[in-house]
Every structure is written in structure tokens, then in C-alpha cells.
Amino acid sequence: MQTATMTVDHVGIDVVRAGSGRPLVFLHSVGGVDRDGAFLQGLADRGSLTAPWHPGFGHSELPGEYRSVGDLALFYLDFLEQEGFEEVVLVGVSFGAWLAAEIAVRDAHRLAKLVMISPVGIKVGDRETRDIEDVFAMSQDELTEAAYAEPERRKRDYSTMSDEDLTALARSRESYAFFGWQPYMHNPTLRRWLHRIKQPVLVIGGTDDGLLRSGYLEGFVESLPNARLSRIANAGHYPEVEQPQAVLDLIDSFLEEE
Amino acid sequence: MRVYHFSEQPYHGAWEADAPSLRVTLPNKHCDPKVAADLINWRLDEWQLCDELGLNIACNEHHSSATCLSASVNMPIAMMAGRTQRARIMASGYAIAQRPDPIRLAEEIAYIDVATRGRLDVGFVKGAPYEISPTNANPVKITERFWDANDLILKALTHQDGPFSWESEWYHFRQVNIWPRPYQQPRPSVFVTGGSPGTAKSSGANGHGFINILSGWNARTLFDMHRLASLEAGHGVTPWSKFVYTALMGVGETREEGHRRLMDIAGYFRTTSKVGEAFMNPPGYMDVAGNVRWLKANQTRGRAGNHFQAAKRDGEKLAIGSGVGTGLGVSAQDMADAAIAFCGTPDDVYEQMTEFISHAGGVGNFVIMAQGGEMPHHEACANLELFSKEVLPRLEEFDQSQIHADTEERVLSQRDEG
Fold it and tell me: What is the domain partition of chain A in residue ranges?
């Protein structure tokens, strides 16, 4: 898979493209686009995959005026229009799934179906019940423990990474915090508007997700008119990383449905 | 020469609590309010003593911490405003990028300045990374927000012709018109507190003073950055009155007594950087290049304390301020040799402070931490009394004009050399 650059509304971003067939757009989370991962390879085998790096993440530019996930959503509506995509399958993970919802509540006419993996972005619990663990209050080890079913396999040695990749990582973390700091990883009014997404939505969660409170994903499904929830065993917050084939199988059945 | 006494008002009784961090997460069940009442009132009494001794007062704030009981710098300042007659009172850090209400702060500043008939010195501070939690301030773009708040507060303090509006990226006000306006006209002097090259340069470029904390001999480099930035921005080479240096101070009738007092105060170093890893480096607080350097060393969230870069004259680094318990092997003389403390007999302290002034190229203000750590009230009073009697009068007579002239010449040639 190759990374190319493109410009949308005067914003230069990186984008990974692969495969052919029906349009699939992948929206990443804080970890960025893992173009070598089995999950993205699998998506590219199922259609024409476009995986943009969000403005401010990786090496993509962040316009000074942007201040909310809503701005990113409007950027992506421009992106979809510029690409001329129709009948898109939008696949988002965590922060990227939040973004998918923000896009779809504004304008879903280019979308066919949505896959939301471990989405954040709405408020479900009461004011004293945190839906999403505070990742900014965790040490790196605590975060890895909470995010993965098999954390030992997910510890990374950053010292071996190139400066270019580390720069991308540091920028992604900064933008993730910028957009998700307060209110913490959600938009208080988003749940009120989820009814606007009439398309079929598949919500996927890991059975061992230590970041999302039990019952949180059900909150999405209750508010979306046409959604269902599937759980992946032996996976944490990122099932597409830990169990890519199981996630791809779920997506296959979902896409085959009328 | 002005000397301000400073204490963080530590709650040392909780330092031994079995907790990974003395800041942010330490449960306040470890705080006995009756003990805190004694501690706070002793510290206020010490500041009141300063008023009688010819010393000035510097206050700060930290949050959710056993290292500092003052969570709002204007709380002790307001109390000292009513308990003093002569002393200047310095806020050595309003955390303006964290506070959501710059206009409220401008109103408080003006009130205190009027109530004290112009005795307030204003410091603005970006604040330590772990200070973002109490206001939930976004750490990303904090420097941009800091300077926007600075501009708004200064306009609020100086604008006299009725309401103005402010619609920036960070703040939105429609009718800004503070009452009263400040006693000092057009406004109190403003300093910026910090220890980084970025703060030194930006405060110089904006014409503000610079409060440096514990940079030791490296203060000269930072002050030169400030002087050059000030010159290039058209404010001239920074005069010594705009520099403040902050260090620990223990003085005694004998060298042994002065060193013993210093070591009491030095509990500050053993505790101030005991901070949970997660809170050491919130995203955006440090620039991307800095984060890349840390990631290279597999320090994804920061390291457990690296507050001070103290080094002795010969370059030997002091193992200090990098976690609880560190600094235990560092002597009072070591700290004096690194210029992060002034200690010993009155002669020792005078010589150390004047040597520092000469090295740094002129310093018009010192903030001395004459109480800290576990130092009891009577020792703090004795420390302040001896300093004011035996050191302060000689410091006030110390003539810096030639030092400043030499410094000015050096900075002008630095500029000419580009």
C-alpha cells in the first residue's frame, strides 16, 4: 500500500489507497493508518480502500481555525464530495468511529453503510459515571493494559522507530488531545442527532475492552435507528488489531445483507 | 534591590503517604485540616514578619498537592494585603492559560493593587504540566492561549474609556470595563515566570520582566536571551530591575546553622517532582520535536520528574529534583555551588548572592525560599530575621550599575554579531 498526498479545501493530507471495487473509507483513531496491518489489507481485498490521515494527525496539516470534531466532519464531507464517492462504506475505529457519526449526522447521502468499531463520541452514563477511561491520566503501561486483551504483545519499542514515524505519532497524540480534551472524548449533543443516520450500522466491540464502560456501546445501538452490536472475543479496544480476521468476517456478513 | 520571601506552604505530613504521586491524585484524606490550619497561619505570620523586616512577599499556587496548600495565589495575597503596610507583594504565577476567566483575574489584580496602594507585582506563568487538571484546561496550544490571555488582561487593566469587546480564538467578552482600575498607572509591572528559552525570549520580546526559578548558573544564558529579545523588540537591553531569581536560602550565626536550615528547606527538592507519569507530559504541552526526543528514549508519557538541571561550577550535575528521595545525598554546599541555594553565614550568603548577580549580568530582585520542607515556624522566623539584619542592608548597597553597563555592551555586540 502506498501513501500519497492530496489537498482538500486547501488542507494537505496523507492518504493511503489500495484495492478496487466498491468504495470503502477507513477513519483511523489515535494510532493512525497502519497500512501494513492485516485489517487494512483485508479491507483493500474487499473494495477500493481510501484511508486518509485526519487533519492534524500523522503528517497531515491542521488548519488553525479547526477546533472541534465537527470541523473534521465537515472536512470529510468536502473530501467525499471531491472524491465523487457514492454508496460508501465508512469504517471507523474509536475516535475515527466518532468522526464517522459526526459526518453521517450532518450529511449521509453518500454513505451506504457504517461500521463503528469501539466508537467514542457520545455520553451515556450519568454525570458521575465515566463512559470512557481517562487515557490522559494513565501511564503508558496502564493504557496498554486497558486497551488490549493481550497487552504483552502490544508493547512497542519507540527507540527503533524513525524520526518521521515518531513525528507522526507525536502529532497524532497532540491532535487527539486537542479534539478530545473537553468534553472528554465526546460531543454532548451527538446522541441527540444519531437518529438522522438511517443507514445500517454495525457496531463492533471487544469483550476485553478496558477503556469503554460496559453498556456504553449499547447506548449507540439504542440511539441509532438501524444498528446492531457484535462482540469479538479475545479483543480489547482495538479488535481490528487483535482479531482482524474476526472483524473482517463480521464486516463481510454485514455487507452481504440487503 | 528587592528581596521577596517565598514559601510554597507545603503539607509535609503527607509526604510519606504511600502514594505514587504527591500531586493530582494524592487523596485529601491525607490532609488533616487542623494541621493545615497551623501550617497556613504560620506561613502567613512569616510573611507578616517580612513587612516588619523590610522584606517583600511572594506567593504562588499549585493544585491537588501536598507540596503547596495555596490553590489560588490571590488567597494568601489578599490576606497579606490586609496584614501589611510596606511590603511589595508578588504573584509569582497567575496561571493565566489554565484559568478560564482572564477578566475576573484582571478585576482581582486591580482590587489588590488599589487596596495595597500599589504594592502588587504581577507574574504570569504557563504553569507546570501537572497543573492542567484542576481547570481541565486543554494542554494543546496552551502557549497561544497564554499570550491571548496576557493581551486581554493588560488591555482590561489599562483601558479607561468604557467597555471594549474581545472576540479571539480563546476568549469572548462583550463589555469589558473593570472597576476599580489599578492603583499603579498605567498598570502594575508584569513578569513571566519560567525556566525555558522560549519563556525567556517571549517575555523579553513582550517587554515583561522574567522570574527565573532555580536555573542556577544557566540563568545567565536565559537572561541574555531575554535581554536580546527585549532589545530586538525595541524595549532596549533589559534592566536588572526586570530580572527576578528564585532560590532556597538558609542563613545562620554559624555556617553549620545556615546549612542545617537550608537542608530543612531542601525537602522541597525531595518532593516537588514526585508526580505520576501520566501527568508529566500531557499532549501538546511540549512541542513535537521535544516529544520525538522523549519517545526515542521510550519515555512516552514523560519521566518521573526532571525539574532541575542544576550543575556545579565545574559542570558536575546534581542528582536533585528527579523523584522523591533524590537530593538526599546532596549537601547544602553542593546546592550553593550550583547556585540553586544561598546558605551559610551572612557573609557566605552575601558573597553567593553578589557572585550570582555578577555572573548573571545584573539581577534586581531575589525571591528567597526561606521556609520550605519541614522547617518549623520559629526557625523560619530566625532565618528571615538574620537575613534582613545581616544580609539585606549590604545587598541594598551593592551597586550593579557597572555590571549592567558591561552586560549592555556584551548584548549589543551579540546583536551586532547576529
Answer: 2-256
Per-residue pLDDT at B307 = 59
- Residue B306: pLDDT over 80: no
Instruction: For cell 530582585, name the residue.
Output: B365
Residue A85, amino acid: F
CA distances from A59 to A4, A167, A227, B1, B75 (A): 11, 8, 34, 51, 45
Residue type, A129: T
Question: Which of A157, A169, A173 has its CB closest to that of B298?
Answer: A157
Report yes or no: B246 and B4 within 8 Å, Cβ to Cβ. Answer: no
Whether B35 and B25 have beta carbons less than 8 Å apart is answered as no
Query: Chain centroid to CA A28: how far?
Result: 4
Distance from CA of B283 to the nearest CA of A (A): 5
CATH number belonging to the domain at B2-417, selected among 3.20.20.30, 2.30.29.30, 3.40.50.1110, 3.40.190.10: 3.20.20.30
Question: Cα separation of B316 and B334, whole Å?
Answer: 10
Q: Measured between CB atoms, which of B138, B277, B289 is closest to A181? A: B138
CA distance B62 to B274: 14
Write out pLDDT tens, residues B237-277: 999 999 999 999 999 999 999 999 999 999 888 888 888 88
Task: Tell me how long chain B is.
Answer: 418
From chain B, the residues in CB contact with A136 under 8 A are 278, 282-283
Domain ranges of chain B: 2-417
Q: And the C-alpha cell for B279?
A: 501527568
**Is A2-256 assigned to CATH 3.40.50.1820?**
yes
Residue B379's identity, in one-letter code, is: E
How far apart CA B87 and CA B388 sit, in angstroms, is 13
Cell of B21: 504521586
pLDDT of residue B305: 46
Give contacts of A158 with chain B, Cβ < 8 Å: 295-296, 298, 300
> B21 versus B139: which is more confidently predicted?
B139
Q: Which amino acid, one-letter code, is at B268? A: Y
